[in-house]
Amino acid sequence: MTSPRTSRIPYPKDDDGARRLVYGADYNPEQWPREVWAEDIRLMRQAGVNLVSLAIFSWARLQPTEDTWDFGWLDEVMDLLHAGGIGVDLATATASPPPWLTAAHPEILPVTATGETLWPGARQHWRPTSPVFREHALRLVREMATRYADHPALVAWHVNNELGCHNVYDYSDDAAHAFRGWLRRRYTTLDALNHAWGTSFWSQRYSDWDQILPPRLAASHPNPTQQLDFKRFSSDALKDHLLAEREVLTEITPNTPVTSNFMVMSGIKGMNYADWAGAVDFVSNDHYTVLGPQNRDELSFCANLTSGIAGHRPWFLMEHSTNAVNWQPVNLPKKPGDLGRDSLLHVAHGADAVCFFQWRQSAAGAEKYHSAMVPHAGEDSELFRDVVALGHTLDVLAPLAGSEREPARVAILFDWDSWWASEQDSHPTSLLDYHREALDWYSALMRLGIRADVVPAQTTDLNPYDLVIAPVLHVVAQPLAKELTRYVEGGGHLVTTYFSAIVDENDHVWLGGYPGALRELLGIRIEEFGPLLDGDTVDLDNDTAGSLWTDRISVDATDVETLVHYRTGTYASRPAVTRRATGRGTAAYVSTRLGVDGLAALLPRLLAPSGVASDLPEAARGTVEHVVRRDSDSRYLFFVNRGDAPAPLPGLSGEVLIGPSAGDGFTLPPGGTAVLRQPNPQEPLPPADRSA
Questions:
Q1: Angle 337-342-344 (CA atoms, 0-180°, nearest 5)?
Q2: 58-67, 165-174, 671-680: which has the minimum mean pLDDT?
Q3: pLDDT in tens, 644-676
Q4: If you average pLDDT over residues 443-447, what whole number do you get?
Q5: CB under 8 Å to 685, separation ≥6 — which residues?
Q6: pLDDT band at residue 681, thresholds of 50, 70 and 90?
Q7: CATH superfamily of domain region 22-246+318-400
Q8: CB 3.0-4.6 Å disulfide test: which of 8, 536, 602, 671 passes with 532?
Q9: Quick check: is 319 catalytic?
Q10: How many helices (H) and strands (E) does the chain have?
Q11: pLDDT score, position 687
Q12: How far is CA 123 from the centre of its chain?
């Protein structure tokens, strides 16, 4: 599955029937006495909240025992919210099974690769492949859908919550049985599976399907294709649960859109969200920034990728934080202005909803130190005043509701198979970080003031892009190799990197020299890899340095240009960066990790054939992020100052929705955000003709 069929975001409407942006939070009234509920509604209206996600972790309250139900409190909350003009994204409440269920059926509990059971006491203690859990979960979903099908507060369904956050990999007997079924559907015959898994190695050949297990703790490195297929299966198992709940919901409430909150953020890689997008009516995402020098870039990168997963249609920011979280080693508070800037950067990248975890900060439980819209200090707090101010800002930005993110001229391909496979064990290095390499390219482009899209590799039409960057595109099946070749020969410009195009979809090496699947396109041949020890570097003759990886490159074609050579190291004087002109385009190869600084120095040469240049004045490059959204009538230009100094933006005109007034431009203060509306001069141009 690819992007959703439509983007059925449940937009609230103003008194004239015009769309508004969604603003809200997870709401957990069951944590509070009834007298707090009316106060919550009052404060929500004060803040401009118009939608809440409800009942996410309420299974134990809704179904106290297997044979009893208690919906009275939820009925009351739904009625209160509707009376207050607040819509409900109602969760199916299946995220965490209640104690009575795990006590009666401990066989639903997940099992680790080492055979340990994950017991109740936290959350998500269930097997995605457990038929017992599925039966009880769908019974709950049916009860909720039937009860609230006609409730006027219901505007959307929220399936489960953060599927796979803590239970993506289960190695139980249920998982083993389901894994065998998945493999039968994928390979049909044992001979095909044995070939794909290379089971002639280490005497692993299977003679019966029942012999196959998940890659549990083994004496040495488990079969690499078995590991890769188990990652694929585990993502599919969670998606199958999403679809099972969705099927019940659409049967009973066919006109109510269904979503589930993805987690496109650093460190979360078990779920192939590009494949999941077609299972929801609108893409939703949870994002939390992590400590580090690229945390602002990472936020932008993930919001951008979420837009790519959504097919550049509007999407829903289901969760982020107003302030500190509770789960990092040190949970730093946000700086003044970060709440608004972080939120609006998601909106710039296509989010038509800004929601937080959670509405009221918990007084008890594991997340009591996680920030919320209403903090422990209450409404008389700087944080709540910022929450109210953001609500006013989103009201001002209501005209852009429904507009789509305008494609950039550069795309960075992001591929889950390559992420999973490139970081497996028994490789040339265990230090490779797929996500970090992709993020470095994004950061370097932003430093140059270049807008780029981050898009799924397998589902994206490359034709609109003048330049495509495919960092560590490790897994390249033949159809993708043909598509990249067609793109280049038709006039596109491709840049790829070390450890790309090494294996096919079965994790089998393309023979004849690296990078096998793209060797002819790139016009180079690599006989051996040259990974570097942690901390070691090599100098290049463009005054940059490489780390992590080097390649011994031989040039196979006379039309290959060496852009940069190694100056030091084992491969001194050999090519480090190459480019080949082929057809109407070019294909370049970068053989070492350059980091943000090195990539920023190299990129002007890589960009040159495509003619891509920055839309920003030189003084603002590297400081201001620029994103464009458009609808049939208008273009909405977002400018976000990520730096600590004022950023001049001369030569701009348009209606200022937020930010300093613009005559012939303006200066954006540190941390400031501006949004301008301009007439849309034309419909989007048709895709470029890149036929070979």
A1: 100
A2: 671-680
A3: 899 999 988 889 999 987 777 889 999 899 999
A4: 97
A5: none
A6: confident
A7: Glycosidases (3.20.20.80)
A8: 536
A9: yes
A10: 17, 27
A11: 53
A12: 22
- The catalytically annotated residue of 162, 245, 404, 423 is 162
Of 107, 245, 251, 319, the catalytic one is 319
The pLDDT-based confidence of 692 (bands split at 50, 70, 90) is low
User: CB-hemisphere CA count at 13 Å for 384?
Assistant: 17
Q: Which amino acid is at 456?
A: P
Q: How far is CA 500 from CA 3, 412, 470, 512, 576, in A?
A: 26, 14, 8, 15, 15
Taken as a whole, the chain contains a residue count of 692
What backbone phi and psi angles, to 5 degrees, belong to 487? -60, -45
Please say if the pLDDT value at position 457 is more than 90: yes
Asked about 116 being catalytic, the answer comes back as no
- 128: cis peptide before it, omega within 30°? no
In this structure, how many other beta carbons lie within 10 angstroms of the beta carbon of residue 199?
Answer: 17
Q: What share of the chain is helix, strand, coil (3-state, %, to 5)?
A: 35, 20, 45
User: DSSP letters of 364-400?
Assistant: SSTTTTS--SB-TT-SSSHHHHHHHHHHHHHHHTGGG
Q: Which CATH number fits domain 621-679: 3.30.70.270, 2.60.40.1180, 3.40.50.300, 3.30.70.2750?
A: 2.60.40.1180
pTM: 0.96
Report the Cα 562 to chain-centroid distance in Å. 35
pLDDT of residue 348: 97
Q: Which of 89-98, 153-162, 594-603, 683-692 has the lowest mean pLDDT?
A: 683-692
Q: Looking at residues 207-216, what average pLDDT do you find?
A: 98
- Give residue 24's pLDDT band: very low, low, confident or very high (50, 70, 90): very high
CA distance 630 to 683: 9
At the fourth CATH level, the homologous superfamily of domain 410-610 is Class I glutamine amidotransferase (GATase) domain (3.40.50.880)
Strand-pair category, 545-547 with 551-555: unpaired
